[in-house]
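Quick start: load a record and inspect it. Here is Fe2OG dioxygenase domain-containing protein:
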Amino acid sequence: YVYGLEGDHDLAKRQASPPNTWRTVFINHHLQAMLPDLHGRLFAAARQADAGCLFDPERGQLSFRVCEYSTVLPGGGLRAKFHHDRGSLITLDVMLSSSDDFEGGEFQTVSDDGTGSALTHAFDRG
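Running the structure step on this input writes:
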């Protein structure tokens, strides 16, 4: 059983994807109850990735603002060149499929050198 709200059509529209190509279930604050080990591992990864740059990992008020389980279908994708997660200190993306299970798709971020160029990163299951 998956808790949350499905945001099929709204998210596809917001991501500029064609209809029926992007499905998302918003798990949000239910992640810790549903998958406590995963919650702990993701929170530890956020602390490690940031390592004192943006936030104090000891602050008790830190939490996951949004937790989404997304399925991107053929033709779907995030087409907004400068998409960012407003209100987030750090964003974690976890691939649940092997890259051998589908064709296409790239994980990109915007470089921090001021040029606005896209950086493509290796992204696979795990």
